[in-house]
Amino acid sequence: MTAGQVAGLIAAIAFLILVFFIGAFLMKMVRTLSEVNKSVKTMTDDMDVISKHAEDILASTNTLLDDVNHKVATIDPVFQAAADLGTSVSELNSATHDLTGKVKSTAKKTATTGLFAKLGESLFNAYRGRKNKD
Question: Which residues are listed as membrane-spanning (predicted)?
Fold first, then answer.
């Protein structure tokens, strides 16, 4: 064997070892990808189940929300009536306060300038004058 043939044989053996390691690497890669594929399929199935449960929960939530909205709409007039009643009571209170002030001022004016006030003053003066004579 010549040196060229030995070099060729070494190169062929090196190439054979390289092909062997590449083949082993590819076999491990295939097994890994197979496991990844199984994991992805499992995750996809789990996500489908989770998605279905989430869909059911959202449907229940929408039903509950519709029920709450309906009940709130039923109660709204009660709160509006209570607000209107509060406004009416406040207005009645203000009107009563104003009327009381007007009656009070009118009573003072009437007491000092009215016919009965003059009559009362005359009677008082007459009584006092009569008492002074006695």
Answer: 6-27
Instruction: Tell me the three-class secondary structure of the chain, residue by residue.
Output: CCHHHHHHHHHHHHHHHHHHHHHHHHHHHHHHHHHHHHHHHHHHHHHHHHHHHHHHHHHHHHHHHHHHHHHHHHHHHHHHHHHHHHHHHHHHHHHHHHHHHHHHHHHHHHHHHCHHHHHHHHHHHHHHHHHHHC
* pTM of this prediction exceeds 0.70: no
**Dist CA 19 CA 27 (whole Å):** 12
Asked if the model's pLDDT at residue 116 lies above 90, the reply is: no
Note the pLDDT tens digit of each residue in 93-107. Answer: 998 988 888 888 877
Mean pLDDT, the chain, rounded, equals 87
CA distance readout (Å), 95 to 85, 87, 98:
15, 12, 5
| 117 contacts 110 by C-beta, under 8 angstroms | yes
